[in-house]
């Protein structure tokens, strides 16, 4: 099998600002999303770009516009409590946009029906929230439709309907979504959108408060940069098909999304679970049979990362390239792009049973949560690799691992914690548990997965943000703060990165001169 071209699997998803070239696509999208309502005109969107281009967002997926949202800034205290959509938007032209206002007002969100369920709306709401933080705005206010109200208007008042939705007795696709995204109800406005017959012209006025807002100044002070990580301690057990494996993986990514995670982390070579139904007892042959699932594995996790809006560290998988087998960990970004990190140090066990070949480059990857690195199991036991990754900007080092006994596990854990301390970096270990009774060399597992920090006052007392119970199928979720990390590197009790005696010792990274950066 030749080296796999990952570009054929990538589906690029990006949230970006609206551009003039997007206007025709937005007009077509609105006709699909709101067929019975008065649509935008080109002049409306051109006016949005003229008055407040930063507040207009689109979602582009594989070259197509599949979602958008519009907004403006107002001083909401200047508007009547019973305002209408036309009042707050100057009939859609937003000429009343006020750069000195205190509130971001959202005036429309739309997602193509074929792409609903992929967290497109959530991405747009997160873009608005980040804009509010950047501009130091007090809150985001929206006039939300209640499109299922027309089904209940003869038996429930608008207030009663809203209460039933909040109590989860009725599902409303807009109101339920907005509540799940942190918005609270201020009041219900009648005659908000005259052509919104599904909502019987009512709208729920809702607000999201910016807890980072600083009064008396328009300057934004960045006090935190939280990144949420969910570590999956994956149970290895016999299965009957790839579809069963896929269901288990989707369950965990779904859980990560429910927790609002930025990363979901799977363990090393957890795909060897597929060997349980391959009926190949010779390890060197079984590993090549396993590599035949590479494309299915990549397609699965690319889909899950985009669908659930979570960056996925896909554990690792045995891949055949140019007649050699490599242990490769993939980063599946939530925008649909993919990266990979080869395991550099191969254990004697991997070499003996499967003939695994080593990689030769340490990668540092850009993500929407800063720079990260992946070091597979044995690699974390070589301090030079972590030092190199941190020198290249990594703030988090993810360590998928697979060990069969407590001694092997402790080597990974102790080294991960040492790397966290000596490099002032977060480290995350994710391991397999359980048994594969019919798979040679994968019969038993031992793990206690966790998230580790440097050791100083700003961090958890024992340098442990969270850890799983040993040797059971479970997850651990924790937040790491990149802003605290940045400050601690500059002014901590000790500053290992700053205080290195470069006049006495220095590491010579040969890969800097012999390996070119690879983008797959």
TrEMBL record:
CDD domains: NAT_SF, nitrilase_Rim1_like. Keywords: Hydrolase. It comes from Thalassobacillus cyri. This is Predicted amidohydrolase. InterPro entries: Acyl_CoA_acyltransferase, C-N_Hydrolase, C-N_Hydrolase_sf, GNAT_dom, UPF0012_CS. Pfam families: Acetyltransf_1, CN_hydrolase. The lineage of its organism: Bacteria, Bacillati, Bacillota, Bacilli, Bacillales. It comes from the Bacteria. One of its GO terms (molecular function) is acyltransferase activity, transferring groups other than amino-acyl groups. Belongs to the carbon-nitrogen hydrolase superfamily. NIT1/NIT2 family. Residues 227-482 form the CN hydrolase domain. SUPFAM superfamilies: Acyl-CoA N-acyltransferases (Nat), Carbon-nitrogen hydrolase. Residues 13-211 form the N-acetyltransferase domain.
């Amino acid at each position: 099998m030749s080296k796999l071209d990952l570009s054929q699997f990538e589906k690029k998803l990006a949230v970006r600002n609206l551009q003039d070239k997007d206007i025709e696509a937005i007009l077509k999208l609105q006709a699909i999303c709101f067929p019975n309502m008065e649509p935008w005109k080109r002049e409306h969107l051109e006016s949005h770009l003229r008055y407040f281009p930063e507040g207009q967002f689109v979602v582009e997926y594989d070259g197509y516009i599949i979602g958008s949202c519009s907004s403006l800034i107002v001083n909401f205290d200047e508007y009547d409590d019973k305002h209408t959509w036309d009042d707050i938007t100057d009939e859609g032209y937003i000429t009343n946009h006020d750069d000195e206002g205190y509130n971001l007002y959202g005036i429309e969100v739309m997602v193509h029906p074929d792409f609903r369920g992929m967290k497109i709306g959530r991405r747009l709401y997160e873009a608005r929230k980040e804009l509010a933080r950047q501009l130091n705005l007090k809150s985001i206010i929206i006039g939300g439709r209640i499109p299922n109200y027309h089904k209940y208007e003869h038996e429930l008042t608008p207030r009663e309907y809203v209460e039933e939705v909040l109590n989860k007795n009725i599902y409303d696709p807009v109101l339920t979504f907005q509540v799940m995204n942190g918005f609270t109800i201020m009041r219900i406005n009648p005659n908000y959108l005259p052509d919104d017959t599904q909502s019987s012209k009512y709208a729920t006025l809702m607000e999201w408060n910016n807890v980072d807002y600083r009064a008396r100044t328009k300057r934004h002070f960045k006090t935190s940069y939280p990144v949420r990580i969910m570590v999956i301690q994956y149970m290895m057990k016999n299965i009957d098909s790839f579809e069963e494996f896929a269901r288990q993986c989707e369950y965990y990514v779904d859980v990560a999304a429910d927790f609002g995670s930025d990363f979901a982390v799977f363990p090393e070579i957890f795909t060897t679970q597929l060997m349980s139904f391959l009926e190949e007892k010779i390890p060197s042959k079984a590993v090549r049979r396993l590599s035949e699932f590479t494309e299915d594995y990549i397609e699965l996790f690319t889909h899950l990362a985009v669908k659930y809006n979570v960056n996925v560290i896909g554990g690792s998988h045995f891949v055949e390239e140019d007649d050699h087998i490599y242990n490769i960990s993939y980063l599946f970004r939530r925008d649909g792009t993919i990266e990979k990190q080869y395991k550099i140090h191969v254990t004697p066990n991997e070499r003996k049973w499967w003939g695994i070949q080593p990689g030769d480059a340490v990668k540092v990857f850009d993500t929407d949560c800063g720079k990260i690195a992946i070091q597979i199991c044995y690699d974390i036991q070589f301090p030079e690799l972590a030092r190199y990754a941190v020198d290249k900007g990594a703030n988090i080092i993810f360590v998928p691992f697979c060990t069969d006994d407590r001694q092997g596990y402790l080597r990974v854990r102790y080294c991960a914690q040492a790397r966290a301390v000596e490099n002032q970096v977060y480290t995350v270990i994710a391991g397999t548990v359980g048994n594969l009774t019919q798979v040679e060399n994968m019969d038993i597992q031992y793990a206690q997965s966790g998230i580790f920090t440097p050791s100083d006052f700003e961090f958890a007392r024992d340098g442990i943000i969270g850890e799983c119970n040993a040797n059971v199928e479970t997850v651990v979720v924790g937040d790491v703060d990149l802003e605290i990390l940045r400050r601690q590197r500059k002014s901590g009790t000790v500053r290992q990165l700053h205080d290195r005696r470069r006049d006495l010792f220095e590491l010579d990274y040969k890969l800097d001169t012999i390996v070119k950066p690879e983008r797959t």
